[in-house]
Amino acid sequence: MILRDYRESVNQSSQNSNIYINIIIKRHNRPHNLEPQMTFTSKKPTVKIEDAILSDFMELLDNQQLDNVWSKPWTSSKSQGHINFLTGHAYSGANPIILEMYQTFRNQELPLWVGYGQAKKDLNCIPKKGSKAAKILRPNPIKIDLKNEDGSPKLDKEGNQEFIMKVTFKGASVFNISDLVGLDDKAQSKLDKIIESFKTDCKKSERPLSDRCKDAYDRLMIFSKDLKNGLKHYGDKAYYQDQLDHVIMPERESFTNDEAYLSTLAHEFAHATGHKDRLNRKWLNEYSKYRPQEEMTCEFAAVLISNRLQITCNTQNHAAYLSSWAKHIKDSKSPSQQLMKVFSNAVKAADLVIGEQ
Question: Are 272 and 336 in a shared domain?
C-alpha cells in the first residue's frame, strides 16, 4: 500500500485473432487448360510463451483461485524451491512465481519438475494421459553489434566492436513429478524412490517456525536500515511513504501471527525498492496511474521473499484485492507484456530486499 491519493483507470482493448490461409497449387498430372486447385485451411498463429502464461494466469483468476497462491502455507517441501529433480537446477527469475501458480492451481504437492524429453530419456517415464505442462521462461541473450550513423561498425578505442546484450525469452514446458508414470515397473520404482527421498530430506532439514521467523525478521531488518527514515510502528495500517522514505507498520500484536506480520512487511519493503534512489520504478513514482501494476509487483515480491525466508506468505489486507488488480492487468492494452513486466519487477524487488535467490 502507498499512502497517496489516486484515481484508477482501466484501459480496455480487444485482441484480434488472425487466420492464415494456405494456398496449395496441385501441379502434378493436371491438364494445361485447368485452373490450379486451391485448398483453404485455417491455421492458428503460433502462441507466444508470454501469451500462454497469461492465458493460464487468467484461468487461475477466472476460477477464483489466484488468492490461494498467497494463502498457501509454507511446508518443508518448499525448502529447496522449485527445482528440476533430475539435475538439481533451481528455477530462477520469474519462474518460481509461475511454477507456484501452476502448482497451486493443479493441487500438486511437490515443487519438482522436469521436461518431457528428459523424463523419457533418463527415467523411462512419460506424463500421464491428460496431464498438462507448465510453461516457464528461458532467457535468450542476443548480442547486437553497434553501428555508426553511416552504417559502419562502431569500434572502441582499442578497435574492438562495441555491442549491447539484449535478453529475450524462449518458452519451455515442464511437468510436475506427480504427472509422471513409469513405462515399466523399474521406471516406476525409481520414480517412487525419488519422491520418497525428497520428502525424507525435506523433513530432516525442516526447522522450527520460531527459528525461521527470527531469521526472516533479522534478514528484513538489514534492508530497513537502507530507508532514510527507517521502519516505524503505530496506527492500524501498513504502508510505505516514498516522500519520507519510511515504512509504517501496526504493532506485531495487530497481526494474526509472526508470518502475517513478516510477509506484510516484505510487501511494504518491496514498495520501497521502487524509490528513485533505488530501482526508480515508474509504477511507484506514478502510483495513481499504475497502482494495480505496483501492487501486483509487490504481492509477487512478497511471495518470493516469503518462500526464500521459508515462511508462509500471508500479506494481511492485501491478498483480498489481488483479483481486482489482476483484472486491470487483463484489461490493459498489452496484458501479456504487462504481466511479464510485473514478474520482472517483482524479482528485482525481492533480490534487493533480501538478496538474489
Answer: yes
